[in-house]
Write a structure and sequence with these properties.
about 425 residues; alpha+beta; six-stranded mixed β-sheet; three-stranded antiparallel β-sheet; about 50% helix; globular
């Protein structure tokens, strides 16, 4: 259910209790007396308030957008409309990938507030990976999510009018796109106030990035593709901090950065976060080789995330795509079928190249930009942290600048393995 009522205000505990109590469906779901509800603010992200509310009968999660970037404060204002785009994205994702996003229970556009099912005992995947936990359902679930949400919002599945309508529906989310354009594709490669890194050990590497013209050309090409290629509806921030998991379930959350962009951005984000977890793992070791099994699972996940995504995406395409791209009438008969299949393979190769590039961009920004990953941040020894980060950056630069050397996912995995124990020269 969705509604608009009153003016925007930030809801603190007492306000939120009164608000939820005034919605009959939520009052019934939570149960008991509202005064007895347990309300806890748990938001550990960069932008929003997140509450868990528990009553006698059940619980809900409540997310409210703030009119500024929470990580920075009121000096960085941000439109509340991002909550509207997140709600639209979750609604569409629920249709296309049922069971892989949280159920929507209530939305108030004026308050920039959404109430969703409480995911329990799910945890943020990134936290589990720091603890070397393996998730057997993850690969199948995330590849289904990506294949279905990307394919069915693309020109391969939609008419031109439907696709343009989708682009229009999300075109107003440009403020969130601007954050990505600056923080991922620009700031790490220049002097920027918000940048930070593991100093002094990575001072030299940070300076090298600012002088690396080949890297600047490569990241600028990726930025242009991000800005100018509305291929499909993206989650827009699909990292292991936006995925909640158990051994048997996966739920994708927080698509407030959703917009129509290049498919490889979402797929690359997932691969980047797996690779960062792989390189961070050495810094979390308590005994030599103690995380070997976990690291093997991560690299297997890297392999299967791409291969299973590609297989599922191609299966959807072969099953009878109804979009205006590649009209069936142009590929009649056996000759046409063979030529179309060859084009499908070429399409996936181009998508793989994009994926590798965007994965490298996502890695570099998490080490030298504003918002970092706990995969690295929770490595207590700063020198060990810097070593893990330098290994990840070396792979990322190669993937971005030497793209021709990474034709398959096996090339990426092989390069990562070679860098697992590489010792960088650190500053300081």
């Amino acid at each position: 259910m969705s509604q608009q009522a009153g003016d925007y205000r930030i809801l603190h505990e007492a306000d939120l209790r009164d608000y939820l109590a005034g919605i009959p469906d939520l009052l019934a779901l939570l149960g008991g007396e509202p005064a007895a509800w347990e309300i806890t603010e748990v938001g550990d992200g960069n932008l929003n308030l997140v509450f868990i509310v528990r009553g006698a009968r059940g619980g809900v999660a409540v997310k409210q957008a703030l009119p500024y970037v929470r990580l920075v404060g009121e000096s960085w204002p941000l439109p509340l409309s991002r909550a509207h785009y997140e709600y639209l994205a979750l609604s569409r994702q629920a249709q296309l990938a049922p069971g892989l996003v949280p159920a929507l229970l209530h939305h108030n556009e004026t308050l920039a507030l959404t109430v969703m099912e409480l995911l329990e005992p799910h945890i943020i995947m990134r936290k589990g990976m720091v603890a070397a936990t393996q998730y057997p359902r993850f690969v199948d679930d995330i590849t289904t999510f990506m294949a279905r949400t990307l394919f069915f919002t693309s020109d391969l599945a939609l008419s031109a009018a439907e696709k343009k309508g989708g682009i229009a529906a999300f075109a107003g989310n440009h403020a969130l796109c601007k954050i990505t354009e600056d923080l991922i594709f620009t700031d790490p490669y220049r002097i920027a106030e918000q940048n930070r890194w593991t100093a002094p050990y990575l001072d030299g590497l940070a300076a090298a990035l600012r002088e690396d013209m080949e890297l600047h050309v490569a990241i600028s090409r990726l930025k242009l593709k991000f800005m100018a290629s509305p291929e499909a509806l993206l989650h827009g921030d699909l990292h292991t901090g936006s995925i909640m998991v158990t051994d048997s379930q996966t739920r994708v959350i927080d698509p407030e950065f959703a917009f129509y962009g290049p498919m490889g951005f979402d797929v690359g984000a997932v691969l980047a976060n797996l690779l960062m977890a792989y390189f961070a793992s050495a810094g979390h070791e308590r005994t030599p080789g103690g995380r070997q099994a976990f690291e093997g699972w991560v690299l297997e996940a890297v392999d299967k995330v791409w291969s299973e995504f590609a297989r599922k995406f191609l299966d959807l395409w072969r099953a009878g795509a109804a979009g205006d791209a590649y009209p069936v009438s142009l590929f009649a008969g056996d000759k046409g079928a063979l030529r179309l299949e060859a084009e499908r393979q070429a399409y996936m190769q181009r998508l793989f190249t994009d994926t590798v590039g965007f994965a490298s961009a996502k890695t570099i920004r998490r080490i030298f930009g504003l918002a970092h990953n706990i995969d690295f941040e929770l490595i207590e020894d700063p020198k060990k942290r810097a070593i893990s980060e330098a290994r990840a950056v070396r792979l990322a630069r190669a993937m971005m600048v030497e793209a021709a050397a990474f034709r398959t996912i096996a090339d990426v995995i092989g390069a990562a393995r070679k860098l697992r124990d590489w010792m960088p020269e650190l500053s300081g």
